[in-house]
Amino acid sequence: MNTFVVFIIFVFFVLIVLLLYENYYIVIENTGICERPKWFDKKVDIIDENIVIVCAQYKRDVIFLNNIPYKHIIMRKDIDVPNIANEATSYLKYIIDNYNNLPDNIIFIHDENESTHHDGKFTDILPLIIQKEIYENKNEYYELNNCSATLITHIGLNFAEYITHFWEDIFQKQLGFGGINEILPLTRKCCAQFIVSKNRVLCRSKEFYEYFYNWIICKCTSKGRSCKWDPYSSYNIGRYCEWTWHAVFNGNPGNSHKVKNIFD
Fold this sequence. Notes:
Elements (H helix, E strand, L loop, with lengths): L2 H29 L19 E7 L13 E6 L11 H11 L6 E5 L4 E2 L2 E4 H15 L4 E3 L4 E3 H5 L4 H13 L14 E3 L4 E4 H4 L4 H14 L14 H9 L2 H6 L14
Parallel strand pairs: 1-2, 1-3
Antiparallel strand pairs: 3-9, 4-5, 6-9, 7-8
């Protein structure tokens, strides 16, 4: 057997191994089992302790977080928080539990490295975004998503009455904002993945976040992503929340990125 034939057999063998591993990866990701070969679990070194990634997890494998050089916290649905309102309860529970000991910057994300919500893989893009938006631009609130919509197209016209109740209870009564009609036509990024500074989080009291969290728990009529027809289902309240995080941290419902001096 000549050298060329041996080389072809070797390449073929490597391709088979890679294919089998990729299939294995897909199967365990879809089943929510977080196994990996030991060599895959190696973590990269943390390069800045003042930046923390908070990941709202429900079943998906989040081993990709080990390949991002920042500390991460996993908020697990049905374990750390109720499986209610998508990522909203995970984010709020983290803030409430850590209000007096927050890192300088928090990156709130879903449990997917790749998603239609954002461009590319978080393992590739997050270090670049952090460098630009935190270190260079000193941005205190930055949305990571690439999806945009008006509030009405995001939740549906039939639910306008209920998002109004949500807005009145959370943003008008608690924060003194104006009526929701002022922001209904605005096009915004949706889907609730963002960077926010400790300063922005602390612009609201701990009691506000506790009120917000308890409002969700009390109002939700279901768990998970079922009952999309019910305006107070976990699914729909989660969508109300994801469209309004910018108002919590930004102070200006119509502005995503230019947050400088809003609270001054």
